[in-house]
């Protein structure tokens, strides 16, 4: 059922995915679909949750044999990029959908798995704080956001703008991995700053 729903979404868009259409594709009654999913949003939630659970499992596996927080974070970033490039249709479904039913509105059912994924990123970034550094939550969150921004920028180019002629994809990926980890480590020892109207000041 989930595979067929994913296929419709991937090939025809979210508007084409309905309980009636899915039931027809599977040769069962619409009521049978409703016994699994209360409505279309619940079905979409199921698709997204399935993807994020698979990503989280891979991220945990990727760093299981690494030694040291920096190596763990490197493995995390590398596997995250690899996961989405192996599943470009899932990346497009979640991040490039033109539908109003997007990840910008995280449902209650999605929150546990999505927050677990975000928590894993935070845990691994925070663990890279240099000896003697004691970054506060503002700094840690900033570094998580910067890391995610750089990784997503690469993925949006790689998956969303396939016509762009990347010169050496593998070399670019590795450089991004090393740069985001380096920047995260260095940033954890830098005071959080905010931009004011006419000056840059240390955040309260």
Please, could you describe this protein's structure?
- This protein folds into 2 domains: 1-37, Homeodomain-like (Arc Repressor Mutant, subunit A); 51-192, Tetracycline Repressor, domain 2 (Orthogonal Bundle).
- A hairpin with a 4-residue loop joins strand 1 (193-195) and strand 2 (200-202).
- The model is unreliable at 194-204 (pLDDT under 50).
- The protein has helices at 2-12, 19-26, 30-34, 40-62, 69-86, 88-95, 111-126, 137-160, 169-187, and strands at residues 193-195, 200-202.
- The protein is built from 9 helices and 2 strands, in the order H-H-H-H-H-H-H-H-H-E-E.
- By secondary structure, it is mainly α.
- It is elongated, with a radius of gyration of 20 Å.
- The longest helix has 24 residues, at 137-160.
- Keywords: DNA-binding, Transcription, Transcription regulation.
- Pfam families: TetR_N.
